[in-house]
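ok so i was messing around last nite and threw this chain in just to see what happens. nothing serious, just curious
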Amino acid sequence: MTTNNTDWNSLLDTVKDLSESYLRSFAADPAFDDKMILAFGKTSSKLGADWLASQVALPDIEVSSVESLNGAYGAFSPDTGKIYLSEELLESNFQALIAAVFL
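result:
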């Protein structure tokens, strides 16, 4: 996890744990395959099984300003493989919202 402020580490650890919990619950949903197909055009039994077994590989996180994210609270870059979350979002300390943007 990459941050510009070590004060965010505890919050980001909590958000990652919450996100992993959301993914485990989603993988346990009987409609998992249908929802994955709806969102991505295909499903992955291995991915669902990994999530159920708490084997979740989440990307690194970098904290940036909303301005540097062009007004967004969060973004993902396939070029860097990182998730970018805004300082402003983290300052809200609203963990469920931060997890939703993270996911």
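not much to say yet. The longest strand covers residues 60-64.
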